[in-house]
């Protein structure tokens, strides 16, 4: 029996039934303490023994395998001011009309381009930001560095930012849920596209149709001619969803065999005067290549089939000089092809002829700015185009567009494009925005509110650029 057991026994049954000798109790330090009564002796021994037990407690021995530490990060830390600004954006302590996500993205982009890292204490906040804002996950992965990747591996909610060890890839792909396997393939396609494709091919025949279609969708990342063999195989799949997924991906490969087959069909429809005949009922080969009975809004089946064929034909088959004389359905087919093939020359030519928000959004910021600068009418259509323009906008265009809207009293355009202006205007336009705001009267409260939001965002963006230059 230990001294603690003896002490507990005396306390439970009472000192009248079990005498307690403080000096002989064996409790460390009891010999230096005096007590007038047996009860006081028990309490004094309990106080000594409790302190001894707490001070002398040893934790249980860890029997697991200690995790390897994070790899070193050689990037210098950002400035204290930049770190404070990031913390305010991540915690939403800064209130902005457009929200904090665009400026957080600006901060991350500036940090990445400058080769600097955030302080380690903000890594959990950055991982939470990437978890809720899926569109910036790739950027977050780049900025958090090896320590952030290591941290993400210890929280299932942050698995999107973790790196799967190469030795575990095959096992996780074999044993994970469909969502986990799709996520694994998507991550692997960014670094090892061939390995991801091999995993898909190994189990292709045994997968259900929904899984095969989901696996094909992951090939969008890093899509190349190396994927064509698998996609051609999928064109013969028994499931329509899988065939549709394959044709959607092949639309992005203008050098593929399917693209050449579509080009041959398109050439047979092309007339000497530049117009196109409408195709007839598609044969089995055309249907295999994705020519369906789907109808475009307001068009018949034949015209819709022509659009499908043109949308899948390499744009190198045609000449941009034919655009002004082309019919509506031909322009629609070429537009779809330009968007899918990411052909900058055709997108710019089509946008100069007849711009749409979708085409403007697919251009580079400089090209979009150049095209929009040539539009003189400040109407709702222009506001939609401006709202779709990608950023960051060039400094000269940013200052010019603020001046044009102010001079033209285009308050309706400002309201339509206020969010895009707050997200994409260059800080060089801040003075123009502030001058417009100061010149407003009291009858322009909605406009003033929009301008204040834009000015606030530009001030923060200017601070971000200053801290990383």
UniProtKB/TrEMBL annotation:
Record-given protein name: Uncharacterized protein
Residue ranges of the region described as Disordered: 266-297
Biased composition (Basic and acidic residues): 284-297
InterPro entries: DUF5691
Source organism of this protein record: Amycolatopsis deserti
Domain of life: Bacteria
């Amino acid at each position: 029996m230990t001294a603690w057991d003896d002490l507990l026994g005396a306390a439970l049954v009472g000192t009248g039934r079990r005498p307690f000798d403080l000096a002989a109790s064996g409790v460390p330090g009891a010999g230096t303490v005096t007590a007038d009564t047996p009860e006081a002796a028990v309490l004094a021994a309990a106080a000594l023994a409790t302190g001894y037990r707490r001070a002398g407690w040893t934790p249980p021995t860890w029997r697991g395998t200690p995790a390897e530490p994070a790899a070193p990060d050689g990037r210098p830390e950002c400035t204290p001011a930049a770190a404070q600004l990031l913390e305010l954006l991540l915690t939403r302590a800064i209130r902005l009309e457009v929200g904090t996500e665009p400026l957080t993205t600006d901060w991350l982009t500036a940090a990445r381009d400058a080769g600097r890292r955030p302080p380690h204490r903000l890594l959990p906040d950055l991982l939470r930001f990437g978890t809720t804002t899926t569109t910036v996950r790739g950027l977050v992965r780049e900025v958090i560095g090896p320590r952030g990747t290591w941290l993400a591996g210890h929280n299932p909610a942050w698995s999107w930012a973790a790196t799967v060890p190469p030795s575990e890839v095959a096992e996780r792909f074999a044993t994970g849920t469909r969502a986990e396997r799709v996520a694994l393939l998507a991550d692997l396609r960014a670094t090892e596209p061939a390995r991801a494709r091999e995993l898909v091919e190994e189990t292709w025949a045994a997968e259900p149709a929904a899984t095969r279609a989901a696996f094909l969708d992951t090939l969008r990342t890093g899509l190349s001619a190396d994927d064509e063999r698998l996609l051609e195989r999928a064109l013969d799949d028994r499931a329509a969803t899988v065939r549709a997924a394959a044709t959607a991906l092949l639309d992005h490969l203008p050098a593929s065999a399917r693209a050449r087959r579509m080009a041959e069909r398109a050439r047979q429809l092309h007339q000497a005067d530049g117009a196109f005949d409408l195709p007839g009922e598609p044969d089995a080969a055309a249907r295999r290549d994705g020519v369906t009975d789907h109808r475009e809004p307001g068009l018949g089946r034949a015209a819709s089939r022509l659009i499908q064929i043109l949308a899948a034909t390499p744009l190198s088959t045609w000449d941009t000089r034919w655009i002004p004389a082309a019919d509506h359905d031909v322009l629609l087919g070429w537009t779809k092809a330009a968007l899918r093939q990411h052909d900058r020359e055709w997108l710019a030519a089509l946008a100069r002829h007849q711009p749409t928000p979708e085409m403007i959004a697919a251009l580079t910021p400089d090209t979009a700015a150049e095209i929009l600068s040539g539009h003189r009418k400040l109407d709702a259509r222009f506001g939609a185009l401006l709202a779709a323009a990608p950023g960051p906008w060039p400094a000269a265009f940013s200052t010019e567009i603020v001046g044009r809207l102010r001079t033209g009293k285009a308050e309706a355009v400002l309201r339509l494009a206020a969010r895009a202006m707050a997200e994409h205007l260059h800080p060089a336009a801040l003075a123009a925005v502030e001058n417009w705001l100061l010149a407003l009267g009291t009858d322009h409260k909605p406009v003033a509110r929009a301008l204040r939001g834009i000015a606030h965002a530009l001030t923060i963006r200017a601070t971000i650029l200053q801290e990383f230059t």
